[in-house]
Structure formats: C-alpha cells, structure tokens
Amino acid sequence: MERDAAIWKEKGIRARKESCYRAKLAEQSQRYEDMISLVNNIIEISSNTEPTEPEAELNVEERNLFSVAYKNVVGKNERHGVLSKLYVQNMKNMKKMIYMLDLYQNISKK
Question: How far apart are CA 110 and CA 103, in angstroms?
Fold first, then answer.
C-alpha cells in the first residue's frame, strides 16, 4: 500500500513538472489561455497531496506562472473592453457627423 502511494506521488510530481514546463512554453508562445489550463493542472495536482507535504503548496516558479497567465488574460480582456468603448464612442460621433452633414445639406438646399 505504501508502494502504491509512492508510485502515485511520483506520477503526480512528474505530471506537475511536465505541466510547469509546458506552461513555460505556452508563455513563450504567448498562448495565455493554454497557460491558464496548465497552471490549473498544477494547482489540481498540488491540492491532491497531503497538506503537510511540501508539494501541497505552489513553489515560486509556479506562482509566477500563475501570475503571468492571469495578468495577461485579464489585461487582454481589459484592452478589448477599452477598444470596444472607443469603437462605440466613435460610432456615436460618426452618427452625429452624418446627422450634421444631412442637416447642413438640407439647409443649404433651401
């Protein structure tokens, strides 16, 4: 039984290291959504270990990967929101300009 636990622990450590490596690759290729899923795998693996074991917490490198992934995804969403607002504002201004041009043309015809 202890042997089985040791095997599962080794598999968990190996899977955690592989997810960490793949998250670094995802960061280098700026695939932050993929990076988030890999970091979530790391968190899931660490949550399945006993709380008293050192593997139960994220190490510095894993915390940094977590931070980079979420900051980039949130930042991307914020940039998208700002661009959407600018687009809507410019469309409103365009409608005003078109209205003003039509009004000007109507006045100049009379």
Answer: 11
